[in-house]
């Protein structure tokens, strides 16, 4: 925007310089508005009006212009592209002969510039017909070499009560308000100092910058050094680096540091109005910008109470109506989602933490995320070693990798969500390995079980018309296979399950190894069944079926030994366990109709989905008991 501003003003100065060649004697009394208007209209192809334009001769030529208007293109959102209330500038005469132009005492009042694309993407800052038939702007190429050899000397310049607005083809506007802006340099070999007091999209902003001398700027695309300190409310940004095209803020490379105790200015600068949560944010890294790419690497910092150990952020601006694309690769430390949720809700949230599951039909920006974290706290759950890879397309989000540790077990998943008109359909494949039975049952609130070992679980899950993770968990339909290859069970349980008469004369001690265990689970919105559930040991084979309700934390389980597998003394009477997870009741299964029905189904064959068959096929318990 600075380039466009300077370009418009320099165009006026060039016209004035041409006028000076016509003579010196009558200049002081002449109003050159009409002549300048004619020259500018010919140069731009636009309608131009100038209220007055006067020139005073001398060693430093003084130019005063008032009420200047440059028309917008047809289809623009307002009549004027540029308007200037008043312009005052002094130009060294000798600089007109050998250049670059040297100026001082520059004052610009009430400048207003609108730089926009019409709905057909025609840019209003192009003043000559384009070669292409649709007048589309040629895309910026990183190989373009800016020519800044013309850049004027600025001994002192002030811009007051002005604004520059960029308006996209989609109608989004970004306005820089310039309440008071100054440029100062002793000569072209001394540093250029800039101060800025104004606003971005209505959010107050101040900037202090120290830049290399103008003679270095004119050698573009050689790197041009600049240091800037920016503040907006409690937001502080510091930049120290170089630019190869300073007027376009292009070819940028340098160190940047950002900090804010509330993040409120960040929301406001992003155009998100209203009340925002107070989230402390600190970020630093190496920033670069070339063409349509904005990049932050070697990033580190923190947000809320979570640490960013390292990471990269990459933004590619969309062209020709396409959305922006943001790719991130972050390595985090401990992330407390409960604490973050409380902060984001301004401390008003008293419910559980939840994660939205929304797949926008037309996302802008489009996100591609890689994320690792040492530890994740989510409600009462604590996960370790998170690894996540996800990408976004219109109406869909794919999670190609989700891996984390939970209670010593390894959890891996993949899946996707699809847009359903503001809600989502979610499908997932989940695998858990090395899940310790005792740790898992204590977390689930189950009573102690006389089985030790590690479980492997495969799950296929889906949920329709959901908006959050917790809702998807409650409404999920799933089928799962649970397997254990190595473990042990209390010997007295096997003998008790078979009603071994020897228990009348002795108490079985110790454990017996589990040869295999296999269970198949089906669940709809928290209500489901486990059938079959088979367990083989050297002293007997058990078969079982269970109905359960996670919402009520209730189960009904029947199990029995198979006569072919037990000793001569076994009566093989089936047992029923029924009631709440933490305090179930024990009875003989055949004493109730429910128990007899469960018993009849306990050896039922279940057809597994193809994705689970290979997992279960290697388990010896996949074959039904006799």
Automatic annotation (TrEMBL):
UniProt-listed GO biological process terms: regulation of protein targeting to membrane
Coiled coil: none
GO cellular component terms attached to this protein's record: plasma membrane
Segments forming domain AsmA: 4-171
Region (Disordered): 122-148
Family annotation (InterPro entries): AsmA, AsmA-related
One Pfam family matching this protein: AsmA
Basic and acidic residues biased stretches: 131-147
Protein name: AsmA domain-containing protein
């Amino acid at each position: 925007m600075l380039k466009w501003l300077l370009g418009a003003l320099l165009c006026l100065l060039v016209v004035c310089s041409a006028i000076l060649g016509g003579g010196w004697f009558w200049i002081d009394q002449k109003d050159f508005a009409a002549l300048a208007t004619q020259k500018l209209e010919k140069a731009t192809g636009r309608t131009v009006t100038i209220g007055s334009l006067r020139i005073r001769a001398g060693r430093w030529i003084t130019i005063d212009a008032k009420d200047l208007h440059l028309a917008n293109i047809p289809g623009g959102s307002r009549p004027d592209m540029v308007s200037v209330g008043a312009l005052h500038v002094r130009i060294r005469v000798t600089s007109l002969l050998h250049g670059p132009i040297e100026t001082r005492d520059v004052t610009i009042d009430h400048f207003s510039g609108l730089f926009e694309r019409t709905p057909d993407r025609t840019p209003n800052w192009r003043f000559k017909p384009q070669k292409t038939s649709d007048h589309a702007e040629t895309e910026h190429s990183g190989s373009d070499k800016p020519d800044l050899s013309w850049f004027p000397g600025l001994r002192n310049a002030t811009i007051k009560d002005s604004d520059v607005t960029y308006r996209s083809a989609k109608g989004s506007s970004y306005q820089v308000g310039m309440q008071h802006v100054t440029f100062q340099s002793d000569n072209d070999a001394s540093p250029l100092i800039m101060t800025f007091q104004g606003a971005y999209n209505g959010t107050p902003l101040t900037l202090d910058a120290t830049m290399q001398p103008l003679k270095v700027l004119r050698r573009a695309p050689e790197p041009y050094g600049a240091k800037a300190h920016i503040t907006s409310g409690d937001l502080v940004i510091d930049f120290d680096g170089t630019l190869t095209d300073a007027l376009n803020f292009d070819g940028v490379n340098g160190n940047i540091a950002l900090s804010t105790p509330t993040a409120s200015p960040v929301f406001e600068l992003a155009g998100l109005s209203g009340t925002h949560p107070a989230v402390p944010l600190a970020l630093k890294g190496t920033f670069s910008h070339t063409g349509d790419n904005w990049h932050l690497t070697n990033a580190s910092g923190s947000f809320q109470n979570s640490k960013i150990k390292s990471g990269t952020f990459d933004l590619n601006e969309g062209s020709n109506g396409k959305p922006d694309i943001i790719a991130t690769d972050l390595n985090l430390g401990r992330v407390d989602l409960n604490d973050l949720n409380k902060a984001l809700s301004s401390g008003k949230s008293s419910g559980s933490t939840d994660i939205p599951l929304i797949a926008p039909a037309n996302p802008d920006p489009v996100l591609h995320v890689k994320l690792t974290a040492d530890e994740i706290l989510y409600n009462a759950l604590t996960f370790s070693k998170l690894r996540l890879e996800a990408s976004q397309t219109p109406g869909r989000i794919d999670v190609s990798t989700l891996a984390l540790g939970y209670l010593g077990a390894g959890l891996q998943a993949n899946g996707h969500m699809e847009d359903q008109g503001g809600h989502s359909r979610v499908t997932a494949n989940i695998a858990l390995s090395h899940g310790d039975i005792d740790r898992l049952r204590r977390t689930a609130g189950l009573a102690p079980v006389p089985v030790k070992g590690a479980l492997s679980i495969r799950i296929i899950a889906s949920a329709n018309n959901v908006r959050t993770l917790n809702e998807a968990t409650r409404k999920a339909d799933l089928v799962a296979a649970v397997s254990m290859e190595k473990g042990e069970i209390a010997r007295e349980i096997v003998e008790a399950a078979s009603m071994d008469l020897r228990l009348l004369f002795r108490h079985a001690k110790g454990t017996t190894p589990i040869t295999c265990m296999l269970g198949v689970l089906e669940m709809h919105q928290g209500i489901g069944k486990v059938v079959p559930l088979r367990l083989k040991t050297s002293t007997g084979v058990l078969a079982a079926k269970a109905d359960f309700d996670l919402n009520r934390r209730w189960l009904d389980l029947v199990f029995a030994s198979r006569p072919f597998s037990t000793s001569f003394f076994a009566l093989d009477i089936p047992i029923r366990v029924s009631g709440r997870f933490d305090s179930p009741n024990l009875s003989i299964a055949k004493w109730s109709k429910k128990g007899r029905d469960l018993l009849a189904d306990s050896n039922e064959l279940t057809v597994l989905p193809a994705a689970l068959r290979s997992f279960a096929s290697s388990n010896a318990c996949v074959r039904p008991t006799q």
